[in-house]
Specification:
- Two copies of one chain form a homodimer.
- The first copy, chain A, is an alpha/beta fold.
- In chain A, 41% of the residues lie in helices and 14% in strands.
- Chain A has 13 helices and eight strands.
- Chain A has an eight-stranded parallel beta barrel, surrounded by eight helices.
- In chain A, helix 2 packs parallel to helix 3 and helix 2 runs antiparallel to helix 12.
- The radius of gyration of chain A is 18 Å and the shape is globular.
């Protein structure tokens, strides 16, 4: 058997964090573990398994440390967790994560409203997290995710120069990569190309993931636009978990299944096994009965004659 | 008041034909007229108002001639109708349409299954329609829409060389433009760019519209890909009418509202008034109560601070 070529893009599955935090009910830990196993079986190689925030704020994610412990047993998986601050980072590192992601608002108004910190204060927090990492766990990777990078429901437009400035700030603070998040579903493909190009001009290969939402139906078009300008890591959520895309104000994460289908159909290797990815919807549905699970490709089925670019075992 | 700049792209609304023919119920003629008026009020400048096929086949569209008569009273509108053959073309020309569109299957198997004609026979039919047009209505435009250009549910892959061959054949037969239709929702952005480039290399500026479906969620990404390689006419259906995108086998037309939002957000002028376009959903809903009407942008609303590129009166 000839060796499988390496993937062209990395699909970073955020459903267990971004998805489950948006669902009112709490999925049982055992069900989450079954879901993680199915996602791993589909050859997803980076999963954001949870968030180290106080359980009082997000009871749905209170079992994140236990999920990290389980995920660490899955071979070849980069185990990632969201941390909002130094305290969360300490807990995540102690739990053994491979990678931290820190949300940093590009919108001044959103930063104050969301974490009651200015952006400068958040950069200082990032610096503290980097210092902690350097001190106790130098192999742990740190990503800053610049939220509201394409627009903000509070202040409207977010000046592109401020996004670029913030990306340079977090890189100077020591993060390994800085991604751009369309938190509010306001991005368009021209803006995605322009802003990623500007950010890459400023921070080079520390430019990180595209985290797109499908709020207004442009999720895949925006991922395509990001791919066109060299982005190679894409956040997505199985079943689009993370808000009904048809509900006003919904977050509407890009659906992993549709994103993987788009890339594979284009001949862009994701390394993900589509058939097993579709199968990973079952433990999600079983763990959250009645919760809407989205995706056009799963409903329509794969096209006749569709052959996935990369061979899977 | 400064003059409005001309649109950068033409949005060709196909809902009254492609949409209504997929709905089991028949919309009353008076309701269709109210809907056409609303579409025209939104500054859509090309509408496919119906299809000249036997009423026994598509009773939903039996009133097409009456709709053409009404549409001809709407200033600035290109009134278009689908015709499957010479008989339909004669009826359409007699009704006074400005433009005919003739579906021609790129897939050999689909052509036989759908119209019981080989592709060569269909090209001969196109030639007869062109001769009729030249004879009795030289100002009427003729478009061939190459259906199943990106794949076929019967035969699977449709060789790109055959699509290019067919495009040259219909142009030699005398059509004014030849568009490419993703009838089955199998297109991907890389293929869209490649195939439109090949077709343009063969038939130049007779390359016509991109008619994309959203069956697997790639509709807007495919429209973006087509725009990237110079396509400037896009078919779309208000409310995505033309099949529930979540039902297996559904046609799932690209949603006009989302497509217009994408382009306008990118700064690509459509000439369409988004607010009035959203308002045009009401007569559609009123005329077909209970029928699913899709669209992410209408549900999410326009983003805070969104300003349409082109000024409207």
């Amino acid at each position: 058997m000839s060796p499988t070529p390496p993937p062209d893009v990395l699909i970073s599955e955020v459903g267990p964090r971004d998805g489950l935090q948006s669902v009112a009910r709490t999925m049982a830990t055992a069900d989450k573990i079954r879901w993680l196993d199915a996602l791993h079986a589909a050859s997803l190689r980076e999963i954001e398994v949870g968030s180290f925030v106080p359980a009082s704020l997000l009871p749905q994610l209170a079992d994140t440390a236990a999920l990290v412990r389980h995920a660490l047993t899955l071979p070849g998986l980069t185990v990632m967790a969201l941390v909002p601050n130094l305290r969360g980072a300490k807990a995540a590192i102690e739990a053994g994560v491979h990678k931290l992601t820190i949300p940093v608002s590009a919108s001044a108004a959103h930063s104050l409203a969301n974490v009651r910190k200015t952006r400068e204060d958040m950069v200082a927090e990032v610096r503290s997290i980097v210092a902690l990492r350097n001190d106790i766990a130098p192999n742990v990777k740190i990503e800053a995710g610049l939220s509201t990078a394409f627009g903000c429901t509070i202040q409207g437009e977010v000046p592109e120069d401020e996004v670029v400035w913030l990306a340079t700030q977090v890189v100077e603070a020591g993060v390994d990569e800085s991604g751009l998040s369309d938190t509010t579903g306001m991005a368009n493909p021209a803006q995605v190309r322009r802003l990623f190009n500007k950010v890459r001009a400023a921070i080079g290969d520390k430019t990180g993931a595209a985290h797109m939402h499908n709020t207004r139906g442009l999720g895949l078009a925006n991922c395509l636009a990001a791919y066109d300008v060299g982005v190679r890591t894409f956040d997505a959520s199985l079943g689009g978990l993370g808000g009904c895309p048809y509900a006003p104000g919904a977050s509407g994460n890009v659906v992993t299944e549709d994103l993987v289908f788009m890339f594979e159909a284009m001949g862009v290797r994701t390394g993900v096994d589509i058939a097993k990815l579709l199968a990973a919807r079952e433990p999600l549905k079983a763990g959250l009965p009645g919760e809407p699970v989205y995706g056009m490709t799963p409903e329509a089925g794969l096209p006749k004659g569709f052959a996935q670019g990369a061979a899977h075992d």
